[in-house]
Design brief:
single chain; about 400 residues; mainly alpha; Rhomboid-like fold; 2 domains; 3-stranded antiparallel β-sheet; two-stranded parallel ribbon; 13 helices; elongated; membrane; transmembrane
C-alpha cells in the first residue's frame, strides 16, 4: 500500500505479481489392491476413479475482478479530470482522462474523488461514524498500474484456491482479511487516505500457508512447498518497507488470512475420506475426521482472530495510535535510507505574508519561521513540511 505523497496524499496498497505453488495430495492409497489389468488410477472398491476432494468451478474470484474494474471506471467517471485540471494525462479519453502525473503517478483519479467514493480515512471512520470505509476501501484502486497488479495477483492466487475450497470459504477469507488489513493500517497510519485490495490478497497468501501447515500429512514434497510459499510471502512483505507503501495493511491482511486458514481450509484425514466413500463391507475401523492438532489449531485460531478484531476495534474507536505504544513498529512499513525519506505525514501550517516576507507556524509542534519568498503553493507546502519535521 503506497503512502500518500506530498501532493496527492493517497495511500496505495500494492501487491507484487507472482504464481502460487502447486501442491499435490500424497499417499492416496486404494482400499484394496488395484486390478493390474486396469489403469493404476482405477480401484476395485466399487468405483472407477477415486477423487478424495471435490473440485469447484471458480466464479466468485472473477466476479471480484469485475467488481473492482467496474468501480475503477466509475471512479474515473466521477473524477472528470478535464473539469478540474488543465494538465490531465490522456485528454483524448474525455472525462476518463487521468490526473497529472505529479499528483497521481499511477494513472488514476484524484485523492478527493477516492475519498468521496469510500477510501479509508481514519478521521471519518472514528469521528465521522463511517466504519464502512474499512470495507469499501478494498474495492477501490488509485490507478491503472495499481489495479492491474492487484487483479492479476488475485487471478493467479484466488482462482486456484476457489477451485480447491469453494467460493464461500475463499470469499470469507478475502473480505475478512481485507478488513483486517484496513484495521491494522488505521491503528498505525492515521493521516491520508487508503485504497486497494492488497490486504485481502495477503490474506489469501496467509490462508495458503496455514492450509499447508494444518493439512501437512496429505501433501507430498512438504518442505519444498513450504519453502516456496515462504519465499513468495517474504518477497511480497519486503516490498512493503519501501516508501509510500503501507506494509501494515499487508501484515494485517496476512495475519487475518493465516488465522482464517486454520478455520476454513482444514482438510479431513485421507483415511476418513476413503472410508466414507468405500462400500460398507470395506469399513472395519472407525477413523476420526480430523487429527487432534487440527482441532487445537481451529479453536486457538478462532479465539485469536476474534480477540484481535475486538481489541483492534476498541483501540481504533478510542482514537489510539499504536505508534505511541511501539517505538520501533514504524520500521515494519518503511525503512529509511539515504535514497528516500519515510515521513509521509500531512502537515498543517498557519502563515501570514507581507510583501516577500512570509511568517509561518506549524500547528502540530508550534515551531515558527520567517522566510523571504516569491512563493508558489508547492514551495509553501515544502516549507511547512520542513518546519513541522
Amino acid at each position: 500500500m503506497a503512502r500518500d505523497t506530498p501532493v496527492a496524499h493517497v495511500e496505495i496498497k500494492c501487491h507484487s505479481l507472482h504464481g502460487d505453488p502447486e501442491f499435490q495430495p500424497a499417499d492416496q492409497r486404494p482400499l484394496t489392491a488395484p486390478d493390474r489389468s486396469r489403469p493404476s488410477t482405477s480401484f476395485t472398491a466399487g468405483f472407477d476413479l477415486f477423487q478424495p476432494f471435490k473440485k469447484w468451478v471458480s466464479w466468485l474470484v472473477p466476479m471480484f475482478v469485475v467488481a473492482n474494474s467496474v468501480l475503477f471506471f466509475i471512479s474515473m467517471y466521477v473524477n472528470d479530470c478535464p473539469k478540474n485540471s488543465a494538465s490531465c494525462v490522456g485528454r483524448f479519453l474525455g472525462r476518463f482522462s487521468f490526473q497529472p502525473l505529479k499528483e497521481n503517478p499511477l494513472l488514476g483519479p484524484s485523492s478527493s474523488t477516492l475519498e468521496k467514493m469510500g477510501a479509508l480515512e481514519v478521521d471519518k471512520v472514528v469521528y465521522g461514524h463511517q466504519p464502512w470505509r474499512l470495507i469499501s476501501c478494498m474495492w477501490l484502486h488509485a490507478g491503472v498500474f495499481h489495479i492491474l497488479a492487484n487483479m492479476l495477483s488475485l487471478v493467479f492466487i484466488g482462482i486456484h484456491l476457489e477451485q480447491e475450497f469453494g467460493f464461500v470459504r475463499i470469499g470469507m477469507i478475502y473480505v475478512v482479511s481485507g478488513f483486517g488489513g484496513s484495521l491494522l493500517s488505521s491503528l498505525f497510519i492515521q493521516s491520508g487516505i487508503s485504497v486497494g485490495a492488497s490486504g485481502a490478497l495477503f490474506g489469501l497468501l496467509g490462508g495458503m500457508l496455514s492450509e499447508l501447515l494444518t493439512n501437512w500429512t496429505i501433501y507430498a514434497n512438504k518442505l519444498a512447498a513450504l519453502l516456496t510459499l515462504l519465499f513468495i510471502i517474504v518477497i511480497n512483505l519486503a516490498v512493503g518497507v519501501l516508501p509510500h507503501v503501507d506494509n501494515y495493511a499487508h501484515i494485517g491482511g496476512f495475519i487475518s488470512g493465516f488465522l482464517l486458514g486454520f478455520v476454513f481450509l482444514v482438510r479431513p484425514q485421507f483415511e476418513w475420506v476413503s472410508q466414507r466413500d468405500a462400500p460398507r463391507r470395506y469399513n472395519s475401523i472407525s477413523v476420526s475426521k480430523y487429527k487432534p492438532y487440527q482441532y487445537v489449531l481451529w479453536i486457538v485460531s478462532l479465539v485469536l482472530l476474534i480477540a484481535w478484531f475486538a481489541v483492534g476495534l476498541v483501540f481504533l474507536f478510542r482514537g489510539e495510535n499504536l505508534n505511541d505504544h511501539c517505538s520501533w513498529c514504524h520500521y515494519l512499513s518503511c525503512i529509511p535510507t539515504s535514497k528516500w525519506n519515510c515521513n509521509s505525514q500531512k502537515f498543517t501550517c498557519e502563515s501570514s505574508r507581507l510583501g516577500n516576507q512570509l511568517n509561518m507556524t506549524c500547528l502540530s509542534n508550534g515551531r515558527s519561521g520567517s522566510y523571504s519568498i516569491a512563493s508558489s503553493s508547492p514551495e509553501l507546502q515544502q516549507i511547512c513540511s520542513q518546519l513541522c519535521n
